[in-house]
Amino acid sequence: MEFGGGKGRRVAVIGGGVAGAFIAKSLQFTADVTLIDVKEYFEIPWASLRGMVEPSFAERSVINHKDYLSNGRLVVSRAVNITNSDVLTAEGRLVGYDYLVVATGHDDPFPKTRRERLREYEAENEKIRAAQSIMIVGGGPTGVELAAEIAVDFPAKKVTLVHDGSRLLEFIGPKASNKTMEWLKTKDVEVKLQRSVVEMESVDSDGSKTYRTSSRETIRADCHFLCTGKPLGSAWLKETILKDNMDSNGRLKVDDYMRIKGHKNIFAIGDITDIKEIKQGYLAQKHAVVAAKNIKILMDGEKESKMATYKPQSIKVIVSLGRHDAVAQFPFTTLIGLIPGMIKSKDLFVGKTRKKMGLDPQAVDN
Fold first, then answer.
1. Which residues of 140-179 are buried (b: 16+ CB within 10 A; e: fewer)?
2. pLDDT of 171-225, one tens digit each?
3. How many CB atoms lie within 10 A of CB 309?
4. CB 163 within 8 A of CB 143
5. What is the pLDDT of residues 249-303, one digit of tens each?
6. For 325, which of 128, 193, 300, 321 could close a Cys bridge (C-beta 3.0–4.6 Å)?
7. Which residues, by range, are in coiled-coil regions (predicted)?
8. What is the homologous superfamily of the domain 127-228 according to CATH?
9. The pTM is what?
């Protein structure tokens, strides 16, 4: 079966993460939009760790695509091939396009439905509550934010953070890393640097587990969470017309207009791109704004000289540390504590993001 009418204004978007959902929402009333995603919902990723300590928080951050995509078409499936005119899904559906946006980000094994995803948050919360000791593997923003969330909401639990790097948050400056390390120490989080977890050695009679690290020490913990990097969602592109448009890391090469180099009508946005900047959600939304504007210009038959360009952004990072604090690195300063926490940590930009998607900032979705 082939989807997509309105010849000349058909836009197919592959991937329903931050970038894909935002561009689909932006174009739905000016183009014939089809969003192809493996799941039925969009999730605000920077709010996910709060959902693990407070599952009800996820009821606002996990949003069915159909709640914001009122004038677009949703195909819940995995894209498996791209030709010059169509996207083929795993179920054999052909989605025709005049303009294509690839926004597959990272390959996350999320469940299909919103209800299943909310149940996962409940299960993770029960896992945290039942444990007296917790090990977190990975000292990037995910591992640091999860350690902080648990340490603030469950101060009696022993939290150990294991990281194979020489410092935490290596993607930003050492000053921010050092401030974060000191903050975690004040919350009694034990941080072990330049170590990796090799294996789980045994399970004790009380249910706690013993893990062995690369430095041959053992760590006892009732449970663990893996917070290391996830693979890009680009492996499947090696069998498509875009196979020669990826760099050595599997990212799609784009020009200043967010178009994949060598293609006039195929765009890429979000983490899948080779743009030299830190991969962050708010930047993925900026990619979507530029690409949406340029697709509108092309659909209207205007000159390419009117197209918007995207320039890599300077570093601006806020890593939340529980409900009230955060560490922030801006171009000319680094801050930690309540001031950056007031910017992000209370609501984690959930209300702001929902408003951008045309939804009630505070409402809990059904």
1. bbbbbbbbbbbbbbbeebbbbbbbbeebbbeebeeebbbb
2. 889 999 999 999 999 999 999 999 999 887 777 767 789 999 999 999 999 999 9
3. 10
4. yes
5. 999 999 999 999 999 999 999 999 999 998 999 999 999 999 999 999 999 999 9
6. 321
7. none
8. FAD/NAD(P)-binding domain (3.50.50.60)
9. 0.92
Q: Residue 188 corresponds to which tokens in the numbers above?
A: 């009694």
Contact 14, 87 (CB under 8 A): yes
Helices 174-186 + 141-153 axis angle, to 10: 20
Q: Can you give the C-alpha Rg of the chain in angstroms?
A: 22
The two beta strands, 209-213 and 218-221, are: antiparallel
Say which residue the tokens 């492996």 belong to: 235
